[in-house]
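Materials and Methods. Structural model of TRAP transporter large permease protein. The 442-residue sequence of TRAP transporter large permease protein from Roseibium aggregatum was retrieved and submitted for structure prediction as follows.
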Amino acid sequence: MTTLTIGFLLVGALIVLVLLGMQIAYALFLVAFAGIWIIRNNIDLAFRMLELTVYSGIADYLFATIPLFVLMGLLVSVSNVGRDTFEVAEELLRRVICGLGVATVAANTIFAAVTGVSIASAAVFTRVAVPEMERHGYRPAFAAGTVAGSSVLGMLIPPSLLLIIYGVLAEVSIGGMFIAGIVPGLMLAGGFVTMLVAVTVLFPGFVLTDPAAAKERRRDSAIEPMPLGRMIAKLVPIILLVVLVLGGLYSGYFTPTEAGGVGAFGALLVALSRRSLNRHNLWRVMKQTGVISVSILLLLVAASYYSRMLSIAGLPNAIASLVNETGLGPMGFMVLCSALILVMGMILDSTSILLIMVPIAAPIAQHMGIDLSQFGIVIVIAVEIGLLTPPFGISVFTVHNTLNDPDVSVEQIFAGTMPFIAVMLLVLLLVILLPGIATLFL
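The predicted structure was written out as tokens:
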């Protein structure tokens, strides 16, 4: 049996182990260790490479980015900034067609710029937006689908944990990945808004329980407007955080790690000023930060070990040669990778997909002359779609569990996210066809 055949069998074994329920980190370690041992017929080498990877895998200042941005996102979540952002967006967009749906997308877009985690957005806006949308005559399934669909913005609009993980795995600048995510993220948000307005106009029964009553309610001028001073007070904290973190990062004043530290400190000040950080909440935030950060860092160490095994097996070079022989070309390769990720998204979580695919696909993309920043945005958008597709659809299940409404089934929420998936597929295609979308500011 050739080394290449062993490599392909080991990748297949990894997917099988994950599907059988083994945690992805342990599966990566096991497959990589077995692969190095079998290919080189040397168990001592497998142990030495494991020791080297564990020791040096995350021994870099850059990796502090992960716990700092996680801490910032969790502090923002407990500060009710998401609720305030939605209330202001609701006030400003009340008279717009599908105003609350558009407000949910707008609030998610802003909230994503300080959290970077889709699940956090889904949990926050399920509690805030869905009850308000139901009160104004929106169908519960559509309201829940809108929250789930727009929550994926947190994975693309910087700072995003998926962009950080991709940057580490592909060995590209995390700051560069953040910049590459700006235009596609705004395109996605704009596409969602356009879609919501179009669907409401063309298929009002899909959106509203009583379209005629909702139209009258939108025209109602008796509702007392929110004072301008109150709106500004609600928006100031999140705007300051966005300007502080992203402004400092994009101007070159902060490194990504420093931006995470400044952002976490700023979020702490916001939480303290709002008196939302009691001893219980502080302990919960610190504990969640530790659990999430250690889990991600362990995954990155495992992925580094897995990448070394793939290199020893010669798998990336072999697949690159195979792709070149088929004549797919750069665009064809990106379409193929996207299709594979869409299928994997139905059965695996987003981090697992990145850890399995990027060590194999990124070297091939680089060999084919594809800009790795553009390739990363393509990969992340495809992974985001997996957050909404059955049967896994983690964002959908997060919304369903947080909503806890027996009248709204998981299947109904999946149906409500279908228009969002269509928009995401369109943006994915545009990023593949037009590299400048991702590389405009690089």
